[in-house]
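Example 3.2
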Amino acid sequence: MEASKSFAGQIEILDLRTLSPLDEDQILKSVKKHGKSLIVTEEPSSASFSIGIAGFIQENCFEFLDAPVKIIGSENTPAIPLNENLEFTYLPNANKVQKAISTLLEY
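Structure, written as tokens:
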């Protein structure tokens, strides 16, 4: 949420805390409206549920997309770091998300 403050009126945030039932209609409506999608998750993006959501968006909104679906997740490491500085690097944070939003908007 902190990263979105710099983009007032340019982005829409969908909070998908419940994955079942997944509000597929709202996801599709939002992607079709904006033509872009950024999925942010705390799980590693290489093997996660977010890949399934990205695939769902790609499959159902391909003709509406102006950019590839982007996923921001935690770093692909064998273990979760217990050090505060490493954890900041490991997890998605406002700086990473803000940079991804900027890149996506410029696409």
